[in-house]
Structures are given as C-alpha cells and as structure tokens.
Amino acid sequence: MIRSAIFAVYCLTILSYSPLAASSLVSSTFDSDADGWSGLTTDGSATWSVITSGLIPAHSADGVPAGSITLADPDSQWTYFSAPGKFLGDQSAAFGGSLQFDSRYVVAGTSYSNEAEVVLKGAGLTLVYEITNSLPATWTHFDAALSAGAWRVADTFFGAFATDAQLLTVLSNLNALWINAEHFTPVMEVIALDNVNLLAPVPEPESYAMLLAGLGVLGLVARRKKTR
Q: Quick one: residue 115, left, alpha or beta (phi over 0 = left, psi -120 to 50 = alpha)?
C-alpha cells in the first residue's frame, strides 16, 4: 500500500516537474553558417503571396556573441527571413511559449516602414505579429509571445486577434515562419538576424506548487514508513 502511494506521488511529482525543464525547442545561432535560412519577398496582402523566393542570406562573423545572417532588400515588396524545415511541422509544444531572436540594421533606409515583425502560416491560416516599427543599429532582442491576444489573423493592424485554438492549429501544422527584414523605405536596407529560438512555455506558479506538494507528501510517506 505504501509502495503504491509512493509510486503514485512520484508520478505526480515527475509530471509537475517536467515543465520546469522547459527550454529551446529549436534554434539557429548562425555561428558558422546560415543554418538553412533563406529570404523572400511578399506583397503583404491578406493572402501574403510570395513574390520572390530563394533569396540567399549572407553569413557574417558579427553576432551575439558570434555569427549572424544578413539580408538585403531586393525590391519594393516586403522582405522576410524564411525559417528552414527544422522550425516547421508540429511545433505545438511551443504554444504558450515564445519566439525570440536578435536583430539590427546594417544599412538603413531613409525612414521607418511598418510591417508585421513575424508571420506564421499553417493549416490554411496566416497569423501576424507586430512588435515594433523601430530597429536600431545595435543588436536588439525581440520576444514574440505565442499566446492569444498577441497575433492577428492575416492583417497586421486591423485583423481580428487570433484565438488560442487558431494559434495552436497553426503551430501544430506550421509550414512557414518569417521574420521581418523590411524595416525601412526606400529599397536599400540590409537587416541582420541572430539567435532565433522557439521556446516551450515557462511553467505556471501552480506547477511549482504541485512539485513542492509532491515532494512534501513523499517525505511524509517515507517518514511514516520509517516509524513503522
């Protein structure tokens, strides 16, 4: 009986502990190469149609701390870095987590342009996230929360906010992940990207409470067994 109780509490403790190990699900540090990333341009319409694909980013020794990729704006459309296959497919484990990356401009345009910072496509849906219109010459860290209320459906400024169900559906069938390389007008900027990380969610406070409660029960059961 006691052994069964210990085993049950042990399982509960492991289950409650597992989120504590949350970390990067997939990442690109660009320390030595472009890690399969490419570039594209899109019209930014409701369908986010690709105009030009297969752009090749340049690898640079400059980064945080070392290595990054840069992409030069080739036309009057919107330019994006495009993630390789390891970031795509079933990324449902990232739901509630975040997409983090570092970026800066290498060559600036005349004035800032305002496009979606991140674009996700999957299961027939396109979700867009606008973090900031301003990008400095120094490395800047970005953190896009993968939660409802942060992403809009199709339209950067006027689209309806995506629901939890929509966001999870896209992450579960992700077929495109784009990061903005179009921060300026006119057509002349060069944008750098580094340290792209798709992160699992950070555990909620109740997860810690469950862990402590599980450990406490384990200690109590062990103490009673020793007394008997």
A: beta
Three-state SS string across 101-156, please? EEEEEEECCCEECCCCCEEEEECCEEEEECCCCCCCCCCEEEEEECCCCCCEECCC
In terms of C-beta density within 10 A (0-12 exposed, 13-18 middle, 19 or more buried), how is residue 192 classed? buried
pLDDT tens for each residue of 36-72? 999 999 988 888 999 999 999 999 999 999 999 999 9
Is the backbone peptide bond immediately before 65 cis, with ω within 30 degrees of 0? yes
ω into residue 186 within 30 of 0, thus cis? Answer: yes
For 138-165, the pLDDT digits (tens) are: 999 999 999 988 899 987 778 899 999 9
Q: pTM (2 decimals)? A: 0.80
Contact 56, 40 (CB under 8 A): no
